[in-house]
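Weekly sync notes, structure subgroup
Attendees: PM, AL, DS (notes)

Item 1: joint prediction request from the bench team. They want all two components modeled as one assembly rather than separately. Inputs as received:
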Amino acid sequence: MRKTLAFALFFCALTLSARTVNKPPAEDPLFKKKLSKDEQVIHALDRLTFGPRPGDVEAVRKIGVRKWIELQLHPERIAENPELERKLAPLQSLRMTQAQTLAAYPSPELVRGVALGLQKPPEDPIARAEVERMVRRFDVKKGTGQSDPLEPRVQLADLLTREQIRTLRGGTPAEKTQLLASIAEDKIDDVIVAMPAGLRGQLMPFASPVVRRKLLLASQPQQLVFYDLAEAKLYRAILSNRQLEEELVDFWYNHFNVYIDKGADRFLVPSYERDVIRPHVLGKFRDLLEATANSPAMMFYLDNWQSAAPERAPNGKRPRRGLNENYARELMELHTLGVDGGYTQTDVTEVARCFTGWTIRPPAAGGEFFYNDRLHDKGEKVVLGVTIPAGGGKEDGEKVLDILANHPSTARFISKELAQRFVADNPPAELIDRMAKTFLRTHGDLREVMRTMLESKEFFSAGAYRAKVKTPLEMIVASIRATGAQVDYAFPLAQRIGQLGEPLYRKVEPTGYSNANAEWVSSASLLGRMNFALALAQNRLPGVKVDAESFPADPLETARRLLFTDPSAATRQAIEKAMADQKTKDPKAATPALAAALALGSPDFQRK
Amino acid sequence: MAMFGVGSTPAWLSRALYAQDAPSPRKKILVAIFQRGAVDGLNVVVPHGEQRYYDLRPTIAVPRPDGTPDSAIDLDGFFGLHPSLKSLKPIYDSGHLAIVHAAGSPDPTRSHFDAQDYMESGTPGRKATPDGWLNRALPAEPRESPVRAVSFTADLPRSLRGRHDAVAIANLNDFQVRDPAGAASFEAMYAGAIDQVLNGTGRETFDAVKLMQSIQKQPYTPANGAVYPGGRLANSMRQIAQLIKADVGLEVAFTDVAGWDTHVNEVGAKASVGQLPNLLANFGDTLAAFYRDLGDRMADVAVVTMSEFGRTARENGNRGTDHGHANVMFVFGGGVQGGKVYGDWPGLAEEQLYEGRDLNLTTDFRDVLGELVVRHMGNPQLASVFPGYAEPRFRGLLRG
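Output from the run, pasted for the record:
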């Protein structure tokens, strides 16, 4: 068996190298041109973080670029930002198990379970009230309900004065904030339950983070898991000191993409990102692959949980269950070998047979992964030329993961994806070759592959410098970091990112978003970026505060501070002209805030 | 002309309208809709006349037409429409909807990404093609409207990338910079940028933005009592109708709709409920609303639908279907010779299936698109629209 495997891999390596020889890459000479010391600092910050903050350039220069990179490759050696920990504290679902998440945030299944007396209502009073309300609606729908299902048990007027209700509905932002903060802790739950849904939504920006979650829990409990995830992703990107780790969590989640709105994945994704992706981003690829294959989120998303050895019902006519090849195909095409990695349709079917029985418990029972031998296809399989003997169990799938994780095509595919993300949309073939060699030599040690890339001459070359367009997530987070904006409500930023074409956790297709960033440049997206820049600098984003006073009075100095380099000629001229025009029209509008908005929306800022 | 305020009239438009050699503002328009995820064509236009269809799909087949809402709607005694597409039947009957079955890309890939890319580049099997077929389909013109080519998506799709200006619009009303001083400065910055990618897109964007301002001021009410359903596809098609009627020089429009990758529980307990039926109902109602909204203006318009590949002829183990080969395409418009299912039917017997599992291909998607490019848009340069495809076989989908 081992011999066959080794031979098959050797053969693949031969065909692969033949292919590389056939395609002489016309290497861009820019990848040979070195960067200056100052450019290296900016470049490293641009690529390995979500954008420099004020002071970062000096800090990296002080400890030295190479040493700083080495530190980023060891996030466990970097103390985390206490402010981040404070921001994450209220986001409770981040720390729950799947079963806890399911019980805490009522899903339609839970409502049904409670209505039928099969499950207990959640403990949280707001969640319980919401479940009770939905159960009453469920009963009414079924014709067994008694009272009006939508009327809260306690009226708002019993809890607050008429004046207070008026303020909540029509007060100034400061008044609303103050009033919400003044409601006693033992009363706020009742108040929220008694509010109409529209009012709850309207009050979101004015509430404290804890009360804001309560407002959402009362109206859209299922959205809360996504809310926590999106807020956490943004806070981490904005505040974490372990920036490269956050970049890599984003990269690997996207590589092993799961769409959060597909059924049970609504409550499986928090654990997927936390326990499956995050621990392995600088570890062994084989472990990461194994973790995804054993994750309920992936098994559900790519339908493998239902895939079984074909079996016919007793009457012999209708197939009771059978093979589903969705996961098997994407495992090879997207997760490991790449579409040109040398597999066939027969391999897809054979791999699908190996993974029969890799399934999950019913969502009501926690939705955990488990291997069900009764669903497993016990026959012999041949995968990429390797025979997997009959009579196997879960080890059939494990063997497939071994073959794929150590395959030369995988080494190349993963290296290329990483180089596309971190170096250039069209990374030099020589660099990919070196990374792939490291991958094979170290059995997929991702930290070593990253190190090969980050220590390469190509990474610190003119070919890579400012060669990438920021993704919507990167553009928005980089703006926040550059301006030093205070964020107390990150969710609206996630919605902005969605409008720019990159809805977080919501890429439907298993491909994830493209690593070739030039694809992010479109009319709709550019206008969205400009409008965001204006809204941010002019303090029109709810829950985000930019200290406009801190910008230098000289508009070009403001631009320089946000771009971390001199603005290009066209950008400089446009800013100068805008300021001059504004001075004649409305001197008060010629503020550094306008200069800041123009800098953030400029072509210069869209690059990294 | 009154709708453009003095001073806001884009220079190209006044030139176009007043010049002797001005092109007719009423151009032929091609609208392409991509169904991403590979729609199951065999359950969209059902070969109810073939027993094998029912043998291969014991639990998810659409029942033979029997007049009930859970059976196929008969088209010609052999094919039938999925019942959730009932709003398309009157268009078919009026002769304005043509169906091409067993159509698609000849490339054997069953990868969503590659197959979509091949279909959008118009060059199956060739990854190096830099641009998209719909961009290449635009005839060369001395003066181009900045909204000749519009995609109603957040990003510019592969189909529309290329030499000619093309803009992506997520929503007409958001298509502006909401600050006059900022708008002028950004325009100048992007116009002067050395960065080719950002400079090019920036210029196209601001040209289009100016043109859109007049449209944004008019509230839009669909005509002829047309009612669009909810959802992004309907929203896009409504805005495409709005742009067509605004006569701003639109020639090609693109939009897409996802969710067709039905590996599991493709249909519910009845043919009219479940995942695929829900998607189809929205799809059919949207197309029907668009057709009704445009009314006589459909004379200038052709709409074509495509999807990267079909799905397995056999249902899989989970009442779904896996990635397959040939599929079905719709073409509708005023000039379409419809009321007919085109294409040679390859049959579903074991030996007739592609690789023993999928519907075989008898019409190359470029035959369908090519006919629209040449005979609807009037661009005879097919060799540059579909390079490497020497002899397209037109099906006669358009009236002579």
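Discussion: The first helix of chain A runs from residue 2 to 22.
Action: AL to compare against the crosslinking data before next sync.
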